[in-house]
Design brief:
By secondary structure, this protein is α+β, with helices and mostly antiparallel strands. It contains 5 helices and 8 strands. An 8-stranded mixed β-sheet has the order 1-2-3-4-5-6-8-7, with helices on both faces. The longest helix has 14 residues. It is globular.
Length: 194
């Protein structure tokens, strides 16, 4: 997976929500921010609840150094609000666990915890994440592997066009392998009408 000019992107406006942009995550400068997100109780499925600051630095330094995995901070109206991990599923996370297709990209996302939730925000974030991924013309399909018990993210995935392919066993969890093509995403979200 190559780093491209889509690594920094304006993913557009969400009606009534605001503007989303994405920038590369800096493993050292962003570690404290991300540590607060990944250790929050609402991020239980991120599996980093007991992580120390140094663990987060180490994790994201490893991701930054990896040729098939990278991480980004998503901004909402210029303020950090979500985390994205993009990976080549034939090399990371799903290697040997599914039938890859040309143009597949893997994704994880995490919305920052907040005391002032905004109705529709998480759905707007996943839509912005998908816009960001599909901004790369080589991406034909996004694949994800949420925990089988994470019904909230499964609902969000379905809302943007993901279909469950099957259950798979990963070392850290039982997951629902799911995929979303560019066409499925556009059909589910109204494509260029957003």
């Amino acid at each position: 997976m190559s780093r491209t000019d889509t690594d920094r992107a304006d993913t557009g406006r969400a009606e009534g929500i605001g503007t989303f942009t994405v920038r590369p995550l800096d493993p050292l400068a962003d570690a404290e921010l991300v540590h607060g997100w990944v250790t929050h109780p609402k991020a239980a499925f991120w599996l980093m609840g007991d992580a120390k600051l140094q663990d987060v630095e180490r994790e994201y330094m490893a991701i930054a150094a990896h040729p098939h995995h990278d991480a980004f901070i998503g901004l909402h109206d210029g303020e950090p609000a979500f985390l994205i991990e993009r990976y080549d599923p034939t090399e990371v996370e799903l290697k040997g666990l599914y039938e890859a297709e040309p143009g597949d990209v893997g994704m994880h996302f995490l919305v920052a915890p907040t005391d002032t939730p905004l109705h529709g925000f998480t759905r707007a974030v996943i839509t912005a994440v998908m816009d960001f991924l599909f901004a790369d013309p080589s991406v034909r399909r996004v694949v994800v592997e949420p925990d089988v018990t994470n019904s909230a993210v499964q609902t969000l995935n379905k809302a943007v066009g993901f279909e469950v392919l099957r259950e798979i066993a990963k070392p850290e969890k039982d997951a629902l392998l799911s995929a979303c093509t560019r066409e499925q995403f556009e059909a589910a979200t109204g494509g260029n009408d957003r």
